[in-house]
Amino acid sequence: MKKNKLIFIASLILAIAAAYFIFKTTTGTLSKKNSDFAVIDTATITKVFLADKADNKVLLKKSEAGKWTVNEKYAASNDMINVLLKTVMRLEVKEPVAKAARNNVVKRISSIGTKVEIYQDVYRIDFWGIKLFKHEKLVKTYYVGDATQNMKGTYMIIDKSEEPYIMHIPGFNGFLSARYSALEIDWRDHSIFKLPLNDIKSVKLEFPSEPEKSFKIDASGKGSWTLTSLKANQVIIDFDTVKVIDYMLGFEEINYESIIMDNKLHNKDSITATIPFHIITVTDINNKSETVKTFHKAPIEGEVDIDDTPSMYDKDRLFAQFNNGKDFALIQFYVFDKILRPISYFLKTSANNDKKEK
């Protein structure tokens, strides 16, 4: 009797398992293995590697402090990283690619697709809240192709699969390939200066063509500053402390507009061989310095001055060289004006202390 009961229970379990399997295989339309693109727990992602067919490669890596880097050389843009992580988390299959188009889509992805590798911190033992032996693991590899004809989906395929899918993010009408750029420049933080007031040791601003405007500001104690005229090599006694502090606060966030990649088109070598408009050197409390040289940019065609004479220079933008001369970028007066003041701006006796120099 007992034996028959055990046989009945075993048979019932097998029947339930078989029914479940049959139900899943007959009602399910997608292969889990070939359609599982998303990574839900983005907090545990440690790095993302992107590579395209033009041999562009980007390694986005998270440090222990939670900061992301680009190719272990530059700080990454927080906005770009956040968009990528949200994309990785919310990615869903919109629909499978029709059988008639499957081969063409696979070939297209093979020729223009971007490879994506996602790594996570995982545990060898993860059971009932017990987590032991953490290690980094490659958890997803897939390829991102171009957009569908209606621009509302993106072709993707899991590595070693032959089943491409049209992927999307629910509620977002657009394609996703741009979010997987393998261009280093697209991921870089645009900051040139990002220093809180208390982290600045000194600022030196030189006007090579007008040295009488040049100065240096040094931190001389908590909340105290020294202003020196570089041309006269003289410490200035009567200056507006509030304006100095306001000026120094400007270095908390100074960004470039865009890195210039085509140096020949913009005649970088010719431009940087000229006398700079400004030379800004900022030294932090760890004695690390960053020097930025600015250069005039040719005016927009047809641009005129107040008196209707043709402008000599662009009124809105400058060129800037920084990162030990490695980077050449466009910057905006609108952003930089607050840190391009002449020494007269700080003098209480100056009649011109409210003027900006361009």
Question: Which class of secondary structure composition applies to the elements?
Answer: alpha+beta
Oligomer: single chain
Largest sheet: 9 strands, antiparallel
Strand content: 25-35%
Overall pLDDT score:
88
Measured on Cα atoms, how large is the radius of gyration?
A: 29 Å
Total count of helical runs of at least 4 residues = 8
Write the element-wise H/E pattern from the N-terminal end onward. HHEEEEHEHEEEEHEEEEEHEEHEEEEH
Terminal CA distance reads 100 Å
**Shape label:** elongated
Q: How would you characterize the overall build of this protein?
A:
- The chain is elongated, with a radius of gyration of 29 Å.
- It is an alpha+beta fold.
- A hairpin with a 2-residue loop joins strand 12 (215-221) and strand 13.
- The strands form 3 sheets. A 9-stranded antiparallel β-sheet has the order 4-3-2-1-6-7-8-9-5, sandwiched between helices.
- It has helices at 2-27, 32-35, 78-90, 99-112, 184-187, 241-249, 268-272, 333-336; strands at 45-51, 57-62, 68-70, 74-75, 92-96, 114-127, 130-147, 154-158, 165-168, 191-193, 200-206, 215-221, 224-229, 234-236, 254-255, 258-259, 278-284, 289-296, 317-322, 327-332.
- 22% of the residues lie in helices and 34% in strands.
